[in-house]
Design goal:
Layout (H helix, E strand, L loop, with lengths): L18 E17 L1 H17 L8 E16 H4 L12 H6 L4 E3 L1 H6 L2
Antiparallel strand pairs: 1-2, 1-3
């Protein structure tokens, strides 16, 4: 990857005072799997409920994606952070990571739910 900002400085402007940090991640898909179990169960249940109740429901298959995740932290000074929307793309490794296929954005909440 390209040069990484090892020091504690704002990723937006380079200041070293009054820094705030935001955890996030970038994920690269390794594989995908379609979950048909719920769909098969809903078809079987509908086969019983249609003749008895005249009602049916179909659950569409879900998809799970396996990701390789880069856990990162965006550092911004108060001046850069006060500009409104948090510009995660100013992180020093963002462009190189996206070029390498890390295109799924994960916020701090998504990172805590990862196994």
């Amino acid at each position: 990857m390209s040069k990484v900002n090892q020091s504690h400085e704002c990723h937006g402007c380079g200041r070293r005072d009054t820094l705030r940090g935001w955890d996030f991640g970038l994920g690269r898909p390794l594989g995908a799997r379609t979950d048909w179990d719920g769909t098969l169960a809903s078809i079987a249940l509908s086969a019983v409920t249609i003749p008895l109740l005249g009602v049916a429901g179909l659950r569409l298959p879900g998809k799970s994606v396996t990701l390789s995740v880069l856990r990162l932290q965006l550092l911004l000074c108060d001046a850069c952070a006060s500009q409104g929307k948090t510009p995660y793309s100013v992180h020093p490794v963002w462009s190189e990571a996206v070029r390498l296929g890390y295109t799924y954005f994960l916020d701090a909440g998504a990172l805590t739910r990862l196994r």
